[in-house]
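Practice set, problem 2.
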Amino acid sequence: MELPKVLSQATFAGRDIPVGMAMHTGRAYLSTVVSVTDDMQEVSAFGFDVNVAARLAAAAEPGEVLISEAAMRAADREIDNAALRSFELKGVDEQVRAASLHRS
């Protein structure tokens, strides 16, 4: 929750850093990806729920943190239906409902 506050006060090359974030839960597949020359390696996450999280983060306004309804249920948090917004996300057939946790 502190990251949006910090980023709202930070600049890069004299410009604001407009970052929105999101939290979602579900299944992710992790894989180590190695370059052809074997000099570079990284761990990447793949899967439908990873896509949902990325698309939801892209939908967040600068300084906003969205949490999906699925993440709220997984955290056993009470859901205020009035606070939920519906998002149509590319590559996702059904709307994803999420609430804003923070907006700087």
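Problem 2, part (b): a different protein.
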Amino acid sequence: MITWSQVGNRPVWEEALQAYAQWASWGQPHWRRYDITVTPGLQSIWLDTPERVLNST
């Protein structure tokens, strides 16, 4: 049995589980299909093309 605990303000384990579920629902794309664009005001993670943004901050 594995036990774990979280500390801090972010539920990191739940975020990891959600990310895995999303990745699996997309058909488990290879890591080489992902890329990132970074500008002074924006960071975007995308799959296959810059128009398919997965996350942006």
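Answer key, part (b): The first strand starts at residue 34 and ends at 39. The helical segments are 12-25.
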